[in-house]
Design a protein that fits this description.
The chain is of the alpha+beta class. It is 19% helix and 39% strand. The strands form four sheets. The protein has an eight-stranded antiparallel sheet with strand order 5-4-7-8-9-10-3-6, with helices on both faces. A two-stranded antiparallel sheet has the order 1-2. It has a two-stranded antiparallel sheet with strand order 11-14. β4 and β5 form a beta hairpin. α3 crosses α4.
Length: 274
């Protein structure tokens, strides 16, 4: 129990401090912000957390109908799944036949069964130009452990399904809700908008710490689990398929649970399209 002693500088505490020492009681507005944040998280991740999925999307290449502009296009892809946005690197001078071979690992919240893909032409002195787009349902066969290697039609200025095609390789892994990351502190800083400056913190208003749910992009490995494959297997596949990116080969191996023979068959199908 702390005792209070008066000094020339004011009161000081000696001993164990009380539980509410320097603790600021949240105002009604701050409590409402906290409740609104929790409600938004429930809407985003679903009212019940059973299982979520990890979707692996390999954006391989595109065959576009037209090269827009006076020079060769520099295309890149943007994938929107749920509330998350992912992008590939830019295929410089890719023009009508860009190649990306980019592996994107996505967390699929409950209730999400499709994603939206757009292709942009990167511009140096103006806004990037959107040249093609498509809406892709997540194939049900992925949940059976299969790997989907498909070409999807693109829409754009030429019309629906007339802007070319894009090649995607997809695999899916179900992740129990228990493997989600433990709640992490989310910092909410009350702000106010100032003309010409933007949103700035409100002076004198304390920061609110709210535990929120943060989904894991990649589930943590189970203790004592053995790797599905070793680096020697990966190296041998790289030697067999030198034109494929290492991360593409790794993604296929993971999707095939380390089965080298089935991975080779999937990679052969990919190279036939190149």
């Amino acid at each position: 129990m702390a005792t209070s002693i008066s000094t020339q500088r004011g009161q000081v505490y000696i001993g164990e401090l009380p539980q509410d020492f320097l603790r600021v009681t949240p105002t009604q507005q701050q409590q409402q912000i906290q409740l609104d944040t929790q409600a938004a998280q429930q809407l985003q991740y679903g009212a019940t957390m059973g299982t979520v999925g990890r979707l692996s999307i390999t954006v391989v290449q595109g065959k576009l109908a037209k090269n827009y502009g006076m020079t060769r296009m520099d295309p890149y892809c943007r994938v929107r799944l749920g509330y998350a946005v992912y992008e590939t690197p830019t295929a410089h001078n890719g023009a009508k036949n860009p190649r990306w071979n980019k592996v994107i690992q996505c967390t699929v919240p409950p209730g999400v069964d499709s994603f939206y893909l757009e292709i942009f032409d990167e511009r140096a002195f103006s806004m990037d130009d959107r040249i093609a787009w498509t809406h892709i349902p997540i194939p049900e066969s992925l949940k059976e452990g299969k790997v989907v290697d498909e070409w999807y039609s693109l829409s754009g200025r030429q019309g629906d399904d007339k802007e070319g095609m894009i090649n995607l390789v997809m695999s899916y892994t179900s992740v129990p809700a228990s493997m989600m990351m433990q709640p992490q502190p989310v910092v909410l800083m009350p702000t106010v908008y100032q003309q010409g400056v933007g949103y700035v913190p409100i002076a004198g208003v304390p920061t609110i710490y709210n535990p929120g749910m943060v989904p894991a992009g990649v589930p943590a490995p189970v203790a004592n689990s053995q790797p599905l494959y070793n680096e020697e297997d990966l190296k041998s596949l790289q030697d067999m398929f030198p034109n494929l990116d290492k991360e593409v080969i790794r993604s296929v191996m993971e999707a095939q649970l380390g089965n080298k023979d089935t991975a080779i068959n999937s990679l052969l199908q990919m190279t036939e399209e190149l």
